[in-house]
Amino acid sequence: MSSTRGDKRVKGGGTFTLCSSVIVKCGNEIKNLCKNHLYEYEDQETWNDVLHDVLEGENFLFHKTDTITPCVSDKLTGTATFKPDMEEPIRIVKEFDRTLKYVTFTINRDEDVGLSNPDSRKTTSTTQSAFTVMMNSCNSKKDPKHKDTKAANFTAKHKLFNGIVDMFLASEDKFPVVMTDNVISDQVIMPLTNAVWYISGNMGTIQERSKHLPNVHGIPARYLI
User: Fold this and answer.
1) Helix (H, G, I), strand (E, B), or coil: what is residue 181?
2) Could you tell me the residue ranges of all domains in the chain?
3) Fold entry, domain 6-109
4) Which of its termini does the chain have fewer beta carbons within 10 Å around, N or C?
5) Could you report the per-residue pLDDT of 53-104, keeping only the tens digit for each?
């Protein structure tokens, strides 16, 4: 059986036929992914290429902590073995010993990852993932704060500010808890206050210079402070 991806890789030299198997070890657990698959490869291909072809079609997902150990032998149960590096070209085996034709890839996995779900580690009841913390923060909301009416520098504009806060409270519009009170005040409530303050202070001028159309809705009375 030829390599399914051989035509996409660098070719050169001869070919090499391997009988490949893949197992996964996770603590005391061992799982056979595939066994005795025959593929023919170009000498220049690497052991990573071999593993990719052998696992093609298998429903297996690597975890970022997985390590891979290839072991090549002369027989299925042979004692003469060679352990190449995954990045090395497979021709290194021919140079070492032409009788080595059987390769077993062992995928070593941490016990806390498990074989059933490689995308998530086990967590204890006292440990939260960063994703959970982030989502909880996004879903948590808080109300905007009023200006202190007893402050010595409390002004009519601050009163308008508190009126806009009351509108947010009445409509139950809230802000993410990750926004500080100052950010909510400076970037949301105060710009609205400035806009309404300007309109209120220049209402006469605006009315005089406006073109009065019958189908234009007037400014709500609650803004005319």
Assistant:
1) helix
2) 6-109, 141-223
3) Ubiquitin-like (UB roll) (3.10.20)
4) N
5) 888 877 788 888 889 888 888 876 656 678 888 888 888 877 777 777 888 9
Distance CA 99, CA 94 (A): 8
> How confident is the model over 113-126, as pLDDT tens digits?
777 655 544 444 44
CB 115 within 8 A of CB 26: yes
Residue 39 in tokens: 């593929």
* pLDDT attached to residue 121: 44
Residue type at position 79: T
Nearest Cα to Cα of residue 76 among 37, 2, 19, 17: 19
- DSSP strand pairing (29-42 vs 15-26): antiparallel
Q: What is the pLDDT of residue 167?
A: 93
29-42: strand order across its sheet: 29-42, 15-26, 102-109, 67-73, 81-82
